Amino acid sequence: MTTESPRWFTSSYSDNGGACVEVATNLVASRGVVPVRDSKRDDSPVLGFAAAAFSAFVDGVKAG
């Protein structure tokens, strides 16, 4: 079992006045999940998405 903590980051494209999310991709290999939270509040609830679902979401955003 791992005790690895999320390492949060915000996209470099997120300079939009604070309406962004943070993700922690470091947990994909060990847990198969991508945690996501509100970037304005460190104590905000964390949503965990399956790595494949998050990847499909990102691909969809890139495709427009």
Which features would summarize this protein structure in a list?
single chain, 64 residues, alpha+beta, 2 helices, globular
Order of helices and strands: EHEEH
Mean pLDDT: 87
Q: Report the end-to-end length measured between terminal Cα atoms.
A: 38 Å
Low-pLDDT runs of 5+ residues are: none
**In which order are the strands of the major sheet placed?**
1-2-3
Shape: globular
In short:
With 64 residues, the protein is α+β, with helices and mostly antiparallel strands. The chain is 27% helix and 20% strand. It has two helices and three strands.
Describe the structure.
This protein is 27% helix and 20% strand. The protein has 64 residues and is of the alpha+beta class. Strands 1-2-3 form a three-stranded antiparallel β-sheet. β2 and β3 form a beta hairpin. The longest helix is centred in the last third of the chain and has 13 residues, at 51-63. It is globular. The protein starts with 20 loop residues before the first strand and ends with a helix. The mean pLDDT is 87.
SSE topology sketch:
Blueprint (H helix, E strand, L loop, with lengths): L20 E3 L4 H4 L1 E6 L8 E4 H13 L1
